[in-house]
UniProtKB/TrEMBL annotation:
Name by which UniProt lists this protein: Type VII secretion system protein EssD-like domain-containing protein
Organism of origin: Pediococcus claussenii (strain ATCC BAA-344 / DSM 14800 / JCM 18046 / KCTC 3811 / LMG 21948 / P06)
Lineage: Bacteria, Bacillati, Bacillota, Bacilli, Lactobacillales
Pfam family, one: Endonuclea_NS_2
Residue ranges, compositional bias (Basic and acidic residues): 67-77, 312-321, 331-352
The organism's place on the tree of life at top rank: Bacteria
UniProt biased composition (Polar residues): 301-311, 353-367
Keyword annotations of the record: Signal
Amino acid sequence: MNKVLTLGITMLSALNLVACGSTSNDKSDSLSATSSSKVVKKVATAKKQPSSSEDKTSSSKVTSASHSEKKSSDSAKADNSAVLAKLVRYTDNKSAGPTRNYYWDNGKAKITGFDGMKAGGYHFSADDQGRSSVAKAVLTYSEYENSKGSRQGEPLDPPAWPSTNDKVAIQYSLTGQIYHGYLYNRSHSIADSLLGKGSYSSEYNFTTGTRPQNVGADQNGGMRYAEETAEDYWSDHPNTKNTISYETTPLYKGDESIPRGSVVDLKSSDDNLNKEIVVINSVEDTKINYNTGIVTSVSTATKNEQASQSKARSESAREKSTSIATAQANDKAESTARESVKAESKTYKKSSETQSDAVTSTTTAPTANAGGWTTAPTGKVFVSDSEKYYTRVKKPDNYELTTQASAEAEGAIRAIRGNQYAQP
């Protein structure tokens, strides 16, 4: 009997323990749910102070989450500091970077600050010095499709756009080709081909970029490489509803007004695209001032180009000078020749007239006729002051004796009728 009572008591004790354990677990689950709810609320209302032990637990978790977010942000800043150090080294050395195409891949994207941004949204910002800073956009396939075929706007001058934009010659080590043209481009942070008209809505979507920073050495490098990376994703996913979070961060050394380069982060909503690209803002063999944009040391290609242009200008000027001198000499020679011919003509005419007069005086002199008339020799006439000529006159000293051809050449005409002193 005692054994039966003992067994009964033991079973009742076990049942009580099970019931107690179940109650304890329910309370624990309830506490966890409450804590989770408080975390969400705390994230939404960050400044409220906990009023119970449960709130303190929640506060601890919020602090931890906040710390984690800050740690992530600090990590990104540290990452950019390391990238900037590399960019400064490459740009100071007038280098095209490890790919020789003005960019390098830098692992996975480090996207931040896209919470609340919807598909098609974009945001451009300036830093506290008024320089173009972070540009963000949630890109869509339709924007890409609508931008095909034509430029959607006119590039804007970025802050601190240089007052002079030299024409240079850049010889690319990657291709061996030489670019001839302006040194700087108004470089999009988020391209026209990706964002369309929205890419022209703010000057802060533009930076002063060298030509190779914009398109690289082969037209597919620099910022163009990042753009093509996004374009290739759209080509592989036509008409998709997926989006691409696209972020460009220009990096400056100290207070300089022109960035040493930019970090471009791209991440698609399906995670198939996830990379970071660093773009270098430099020119091979050319030293530039990142405060003013002034070229302080030109490349060998530019020197050769300038020398060639200078030589061409000198030769052109010399040829022009020679041409002018030759033309002047020819004009002078022609003028001298004309004067000489004219003089010879006058001499010849005078000589002819002298000879003619001599002949006239001997063989063809005017002859006096009965009645007081004097007849002109054959081929000659007497020209009156009224520019009429006659063949015989009574007072020859009142007329000019000359050839009929000369008289007519000087405008004289034959008299139609005569008078008592002159006859046609």
